[in-house]
Amino acid sequence: MRFVAQSLWVSLMLGVVVGTTHPVHAEDRNSAPARSDDSIVKDHLRRARRARASGKWTEAHAAYKAAFEAIDSTSVTVRESAEVAGELGLCELKLRKFRDAAEHLAWSLERRKALSPEQQKGFADGLAKAVPFVATLYLSVDPPDAEVLIDGKPIGLPRRTYRLFFEPGKHMVRARAPGREEGSQTLDAQPATEPIMTIQLPRAAESSAKDNVPAVPKALSASPPARPQAPGQPASWPTTLRIAGIAVTTATLSAGSLLMIRATNLDGDLSERRDGLNGGATASGSRCWQAADRPACADLLRLRDERNLSAGVGTAMLIAGGVIGAATAASFFTDFSFLGLTPAQDRIHASPVATGREIGVMIEGLW
């Protein structure tokens, strides 16, 4: 009976334990508050500050860098972001990482309004110490939405202008944008220099896909009418002959006129010498035309022959020039449409001209 009583008491105790135990749900297991991202950043900062206070700059740099990289995924304030970047830059300056220091300090000072005056001065002094060891590039890109890559690595969100820091040496600066041709330039970075660079991306050439589009077959039709010859293109023999005729007419008339002037001058000289030789006698009484052995008479005969030759040749050239000019003028009124050329009435316009001293015709047209 004692054994039965003990067994009954154990059974009752187990029933109470089992009845008072509640099932464990998943939400109960996860009900503990998770660590926020803000606390992660603060943990990095506490670790970084302890290491910096102990003079462990390498450890401090690693902690500050982890905090800075975690900023994008947290809801920290602008002031906290600027402080982290500035402290990271000062730590890198201590480790002689001059390019990284200049980059992070400049990033922090771009948000200087969120910093205290002491922080602004400290970060500005640190940037002034780092700049002499790097090259500061001022870069402008067009279009402003182009992506910029330095030595093959993108540098962040697109901007129109950049202030970039480079370690001494050769670097490749490249920009690309949709619908534009890529642009690139080589930078020979020298310490304590501030080069300026501009990259403009021209629009990409149209795709050659248009060339692959099959042409639409044209319907058969009658041959199109002949297109009239464009004016101003001397491609026919009448035009060439007209130009030559005008040139020959001008030269012939000019030469004939000069010869006639020369003949007139020789005739005047001949008259003066003949009057002086005859002593005032009339021309009919001159004895030189019968006695050519006298020297004075020989000169008179030579002048007479030159006068007659100049007058004859000049008259012939004037007549020839007039004939050629008349033929050239007549060609302007000739219709060469049967040769496939422009009709004469479309090229020539003649209008009478009358002044107080002369009457003529003004001809205008295409040669």
Features:
three-stranded mixed β-sheet; 3 domains; disordered N terminus; alpha+beta; 10 helices; Serine Threonine Protein Phosphatase 5, Tetratricopeptide repeat; four-stranded antiparallel β-sheet; Immunoglobulin-like; 367 residues
Describe this structure in words.
The chain has 367 residues and is α+β, with helices and mostly antiparallel strands. The chain has 3 domains: 96 residues, Tetratricopeptide repeat domain (Serine Threonine Protein Phosphatase 5, Tetratricopeptide repeat), CATH 1.25.40; 72 residues, Carboxypeptidase-like, regulatory domain (Immunoglobulin-like, Sandwich); 129 residues, no CATH class. It is 49% helix and 15% strand. Helix 5 runs antiparallel to helix 6, helix 5 runs parallel beside helix 7 and helix 6 packs antiparallel against helix 7. The longest helix is centred in the C-terminal third of the chain and has 42 residues. It is rod-shaped, with a radius of gyration of 55 Å. The chain starts with a helix and ends with a strand.
Helix content: 40-55%
Widest sheet: strand ordering: 3-2-5-6
Main beta sheet: 4 strands, antiparallel
Order of helices and strands: HHHHHHHEEEEEEEHHHEE
Q: Count all strands and give the number.
A: 9
Radius of gyration equals 55 Å
* C-alpha termini separation: 148 Å
- The coarse silhouette is rod-shaped
Number of helices: 10
Q: Strand share of the residues?
A: 5-15%
Low-confidence stretches: 1-35, 207-211, 218-226, 228-235, 342-346
Q: What's the average pLDDT?
A: 75
- Counting structural domains, the number is 3
Protein name: PEGA domain-containing protein
Keywords: Signal
Organism: Sorangium atrum
